[in-house]
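Priority: low. Protein: Peptidase propeptide and YPEB domain-containing protein. Input follows.
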Amino acid sequence: MKYPVLTAALASAIMTVGLSSPAHATGKMKCEAGPQSGWVSRDTLEADLVKKGWKVKKSKVDGGCYEVYGTTPEGDRVEAYFHPVSMEKLLVLRRGKVLYKK
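Result:
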């Protein structure tokens, strides 16, 4: 490679720009749940789902809801949304297909 330092610097700059973009809601689900101080913790939601047979890979806040990536007890790999106060299941998607919607 003729310019290894320049190539490395350019690659680093591209990755930094890509990784530093702000997080935003996907718009798939919105929850009006009030202040986060009143929310059930994500750990509590994840523990409840595991008790119900789910395998939780990742969870995060999206659109004021809890978004969970995981596998249902039936073996479906899904993206699911839960209300952060009631922990009610609101939406379950598998590869963009709606499996459940309240």
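Residues 25-101 form one domain. The longest strand covers residues 55-62.
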